[in-house]
Amino acid sequence: MILFQGVHKEYPRTGAALTDVTFHLRKGEFTFVTGPSGAGKTTLVKLVTMEERPTSGTVRVSGYASDRIRTRDIPALRRRLGIVFQDFRLLKNRTARENVAFALEVTGASAEQISPKVLRTLAAVGLSDKADHLPSELSGGEQQRVAIARALVNDPFILLADEPTGNLDPKVALDILRVFKDINLRGMAVLLVTHDRTLLGEHPRARIIELDQGRIVRDTANGGGAAG
Amino acid sequence: MAYTSREAFFAFRRSPLLTALSIATIAFALYTLSVFGLVWTNIDRVLEGVEERVEVIAYLVDGTDPTETSALMREVAAYPEVDSIAYLSKEDALERARAELTDYAELYEDLEANPLPASVEIALRDGFRDASDVGDVATRVARFPFVEEIKYGEDWVQKLDFLQDLSLFLGLVMGGVFAAIAFVAIGATINIVLISREDEIAIMKMVGATRAFIARPLVIEGFAKGVIGAVVALVLLTLTYSLLEQRVVSLTFYSPLQVAGGVLLGGALGAVASIVTLRRHLSSW
Lengths: 228, 285
Known about the structure:
The structure holds two protein chains of two kinds.
Chain A: E1 2-11, E2 15-25, E3 30-34, H1 41-48, E4 56-61, E5 64-65, H2 74-79, E6 81-85, H3 96-105, H4 111-124, H5 140-152, E7 158-162, H6 170-185, E8 189-194, H7 197-201, E9 207-212, E10 215-219
Parallel strand pairs in A: 3-8, 3-9, 6-7, 7-8
Antiparallel strand pairs in A: 1-2, 1-4, 4-5, 9-10
Helix pairs in contact in A: 3-4, 3-5, 4-5, 5-6
Chain B: H1 2-14, H2 16-52, E1 55-60, H3 66-77, E2 82-88, H4 90-100, E3 119-124, H5 131-142, E4 147-151, H6 154-196, H7 198-206, H8 211-247, H9 256-281
Antiparallel strand pairs in B: 1-3, 1-4, 2-3
């Protein structure tokens, strides 16, 4: 599903961001990617979305290989990924409903298909009553739920979240983690990037990939142990 | 398509100030270009009017046999440069002189003999009225032995040639410069619009929008702004024109076809400037 094979990523100015990274994410798996800042977590996310390509090695995501994918195939790949960021990245002048609908409009879906699906997805993240609110009228946690709904609405095979709780207070962060766990229970894979170690303890059965200075220093799927 | 048109026109409501600024820039750029174009076409038209009067006159030796004259006329009429040819007899020449030179009417009265020669007036086709073609026709006609003298205003034909070349050169260079300024100005305002929407474009890329999907509403927006800017420029130009017409000089305005072409050109400039600017913003994925 997602396969990193001997991935090395170097930026011209800042040097190596990832070194010899190899892992395989399976269907329906919940994985934390953790490590201090500068460990290469965000680079890893950009390699999955093909915003960046590896300097050497290969990234495979749902049938697309980093060394063969054409720029025009990238939109199709992105539609199969649900992506959530720390800063929510919502369109400020559109309501929650319109923000979620946006991800479907992009695929060319018709208005009749969009409306019920958007409402169902907003209900799934517990925001039915806030559908017509602008982002500025929502709390941080609610804005992140809208972003999660937008990521889910295209039925991706994996939800990719880069520090999704970074801008939220601890209690709200746990609420958001619960939303991710619920989504995972319904069979969708989740890749959650975080530097917040307290989140890891909230989901002991999840796989943990720990990065430090661009290298994997622990992978619980390879017998690295959950407590490490 | 519903999304595209909704987005394109949503932009006008969403950022009215920025939209007004881009339209004003486009309008000003196109206005400058159209004023220059108007001045240029009027100068060119005057020069063309003068050029139409270029002709070669061959004065004939007195007593030339009419059959020889007709032979000359037949032969010269067949030159590719020649549009029409007319014979003016001695009597007709005198008649014309009397009619045209009324101040000197007494000179032509009580003449014992008609001093004016018969002549052949040769009008040239459009495109054959420059100094070299006119000189060439004159040289060939002068070879007929019974042609006494040839006149074609060599000096002013050369001056006219120079003025026309200068006008064409200035027209192309200045027109090109103004069009380039218009293009850069439009590109710059569209760039500001795109920078103000960078976040939105990033979100579109993230949720899997294709390049065409992102670009389409922005190109339509550029086109619409170009058209509106052109219409504003047209209103300003019409005002300028009527002011000049009333107070200064009589000018010829653009034809309806040229006006329509100008408005479309505004739209095309807006669309192309959007595409060029978008390429930079959509180069990475």
